[in-house]
Amino acid sequence: MIEFNDTKNSGLTRFSSQPIALAAAILVALVAGVGSIALWRGYTGASPEPDRVVAVRQLQARTAQASEQLVEKTKGLEATQQESIDQLQVVQDQLLTVRRLLAAQQAETKRLSDQVGSLTSAIDGLRQSFASAPASEPSGPPSVRKPVKKKPRAASPAKRATPRS
C-alpha cells in the first residue's frame, strides 16, 4: 500500500510542478471549444438570439391580441349588463304602476262594497217598515172580478140518439 500512495503523490507533484503548462492546456481547450461553437453557428446560420427575438415578438403579439379580445369582451359584457339594468328598471317601473293600479282598484272595490252595504241596509229598513205597517189601511181600491160566462156545451152524439118515451 505504500507503493500505491507513492505513485499517487508522485503524479500530483508532477502537475503541481508545472502550473503554467496546465493553465495553457486549459486555455487552448477553451479557445478550441469557443471557436468550434462560432464556426458551427456561422456554418449553419442558426443563432438562437434571432429565434428568441422572433419568439418573444410572437408572444407579445399573442398577448396583445388576447388583451384586445378581453377588452372587447369586457365592453360587450358592460353593454349587456347595462341593457339588463335598463330592462330591470323598466320592469320595476311597470311593477310600480301595476301596484298603484291595484291599490286604486282595491280602493274602488271597497267604496263600491260600502255602497252596496248601505243600499242593502236601506232595503232592509224599507222591508221592515212595510212589514210593520197596519194591515187595516187599504193598500188600494179593491179589484173587481167580472164573472166568467160559461158557454153551453153541445150534447155529445151518444146522448142525442136515445129519445125517451
Description:
The model has no long low-confidence stretch (mean pLDDT 81). With 165 residues, the chain is mostly helical. The chain has helices at residues 2-17, 19-44, 48-131, 157-160.
Helix content: over 70%
Distance between the termini: 192 Å
- State the low-pLDDT regions, or none: none
Question: How many β strands by DSSP?
Answer: 0
Q: Give the helix/strand class.
A: mainly alpha
Instruction: Report the β-strand fraction as a percent range.
Output: under 5%
Give the SSE string.
HHHH
What general form does the structure show? rod-shaped
Major pleated sheet: none
Task: Please specify the SSE layout and strand pairing.
Blueprint: H1 2-17, H2 19-44, H3 48-131, H4 157-160
Short description:
This protein is mainly alpha-helical and 165 residues long.
State the main characteristics:
single chain; 165 residues; mainly alpha; 0% strand
